[in-house]
Amino acid sequence: KRSSIFWRGGSHFVETLSNPRAQVACQGVNNTAVFDTGFADPPHNTSVLLRHCCRPFVPFNMTTGWKYLAVLDGHGYTERFKSFTASNSLIVWWQATDHYEFFYPGFRNGTNILIVKSLEGLASAVEWARNHDQEAMLMAERMKYFSDLVFHDDFIDCYLHTLLSEYAEMLSYRVVASEDNSTYNPEEYVT
Fold first, then answer.
1. Is the model's pLDDT at 159 over the cut of 80?
2. Residue 186 above 60 pLDDT?
């Protein structure tokens, strides 16, 4: 596996170099020994200021070729985060927003993930991981184990059942199946 940190992302809503995503993308040009990062958008779809930070698109199934995967908060949740947890690569997460996914409580900084708060934190995390390869790979294995548990169909079914049951209680719905399995009018079941 390559020992640089990998990230590709979109440049939409990124207008200045002070944006965390722009900072990381441009490090793929400025510091290639540590960062294999960049915007995956075609340069003509990227602002003139950021065009030099574009890198070739990498299909998801190829991302497991890196030891370290960066996850960056953007203007919403990142689509690859959940999939990266199953990659057997160390995840370094620059948590810049309060966006929240149901699986975040299972993250333990320094146990199954490295959570950083800055560009310098990403570089330091890679340096630490390179100097502590066995510990870093053990963290990646722990994240894979976590992923196998939390994204298993039984866990998701339990999560959805709990979530919907709590919503039904909050909304005072008494949801019951009709005997003939026909559609039902929710108004009939409001208590």
1. yes
2. no
